[in-house]
Amino acid sequence: MRSLRTLKLHCFCFCSQTINAFSVATDPELKAKVIGRVQCITKLEDMLEKCLAVTPGYKPPAASFELSISPEVKGHGTGPSTSGKTKAEGSKKRKRASQEKENNPTNDTTLSSQRDEEEDVDTTKETSPEVRANLKDYKGFFRELDLDVFLILSSGLFSKSIMDSELHTKEVQLLQLQPSQLEFLLRDLLDKTKHSLTTRKKTFLHAKSKTSVGFSRLDQLSAHQVAKKLVKFLPSLCQHLEATNDFIQTLTSRNDGVVDGPGSTSADALKTKSCFQIILEILLCFFLSVIFVILGRDGLHAKSSLPVLEESLGVFAAKITEGTQSTNVIDLSKKCCQYFEKYKDSVPTLDCGLVLLKLMVALTNLNSQERSEPIGSLAETFLKREWLDENGDRCKGAKYNESLQRVIRLHLCHAKDDTLKAIETICSTGVPELVNAGSNSCSTTYPTLTQPTFSSYYRIMFEELVAFQKKIPMFSSREEADAQSQKLIDWNVSVRVMYMLISMIKAYDGRANVTTALKHGRASLEVFMRNGMPALDWMFKTQKEDVQSLLKNLQPSTRALQYMCNHTKVAQDISLNNHVPALKRILEQFVYRVKAMLALHGCHQAMWVGNLKNKDIKGDEIPSQVCPDEEEDSESDEEEEEEQREEKMSEDESDDEEDSENGVIFTELLGSN
């Protein structure tokens, strides 16, 4: 068995070296033979994945001798091997059967038949789940493919003559790259692109040659030389991208628009969808590295990389504009974004959609634009689409949630109107639909908004709210009245959105959501006190009603945050309690900051103090939080609760009487000045 595995590895390396030798040949017959060798490699790859999975301790022979160190198996000793356990169980069964045979010699036939049946059952259990090894762990034991090999990507249909024993043409076989061969070449090209063009962190006392295992010949070229070679492959990649897009669209139209219809999970369909995503990943890695140089972070190679960028952008821009086209990088990048945007309906997975969004963001960076409406609308399209796995179930898991969070952030950052309106739309449309739906259902407008993914939505929306507040410019008395009024409007809208987010805790009071509200609610109040209160100080005389309305709208949010502090104390959650002291401190500072603003305008008597009742997140009053045995230990906590204040602008005495039990109350300010 070991000799057979070694033989397959040698065959794999032989085919790789043959492809390296004849990949630049122009003879159609030789090109057909090269494609045939690629087919042999994919078959050997499938067999090696099965063979190496059952022997994780096997170390293949070295295939490259250019490095000073020998390659290692990355997954050595960590594979899902159960051979030792199987042997132990088999030996125990044989010993037990032999003992029973000695004790009962008359039942020899019965015992042997039972033993055979047990072994058959065990064999069935062992072989039913097919375990495959990851060949990336054995990358140092395979011969490396040269960059010139990827000229095969531009190959079309070739004919190969099969000879008989007398060297006469027996039949003519037509050969072209199949999805499995295309995926093999694209994955290798992606690995080479990442290794050569991606900036790697240099760590201390780590051998440099270890990172070059499997890329020793590629490291002989500089990153600029690799980029120039990749430009030659872009027309072929563009051709294969369009071909995979046509395949996916044809399959979807054949199923009357059903994405997970018949044939969508076949081997060729899965391979084709994988090729679609890999091509986008190659283009993303390529453009990110070149744009990184062009934007001035590496000034030594910026001039030499600019022609590479112009030529690469021109390949895709030519698909949009016929005839002569502009050589301006900004115009070319806009046309490239239009070209890639048309593939949004063919995106098979959310991960692939995220790669497409990142590619468009990288091209948009050339325009020096902070906001791009096409990216925001494309991200919203992905959020409004239901993503299913190969089994037809709704996608879930940590990797899916991570991709979803990035898509949500891109949608909010590049929204058509602005970030706050996008958050309001989700809060007013998607969340109520989710609340009214069942536990296993989702929002009709945003199918990606489900019970498990709500915490992802909630955290990203709160983070983007705080980021938007930080971007509101500081107040200046030299500004025009319209600019000052616009800042006040922005703060009003942000306060309203903040209350919408905090009020969701009543329906979704999970630990992760409460942590998000405590953490980012405090951050929002800190930004408001630092940037918003100076504006209120200046506009209090001229726009008293607007300032009064803003503080009035902020009071329910501060009250709800205080209720969350009470909830964490009752729940006795250590991780939640860590956020409480800082939040209570900022709430108290906010009270005194408002008192200072009133004193500045000579109406400090307009605010009077009342004790805040202890209530939980739902708004129900907590009868007692102190046990008789813990009274002495909690006296300091009770004093802090009595000092906790909230503000409210009141115009009616009846409102004052009703809210006097809930916190700090402001009397009528209009008549006190």
From TrEMBL:
GO molecular function: DNA polymerase binding
Signal peptide (residue range): 1-21
Keyword match Cell membrane: no
Feature: compositional bias, Acidic residues: 628-661
Composition bias, Basic and acidic residues: 86-103
One GO location term (cellular component): nucleus
Region (Disordered), start-end ranges: 70-128, 620-673
Chain ranges passing through the membrane: 276-295
Keyword list, A-Z: Isopeptide bond, Membrane, Nucleus, Signal, Transmembrane, Transmembrane helix, Ubl conjugation
PANTHER family from the UniProt entry: FANCONI ANEMIA GROUP D2 PROTEIN
Protein known as: Putative Fanconi anemia group D2 protein-like
Organism expressing this protein natively: Stichopus japonicus (Sea cucumber)
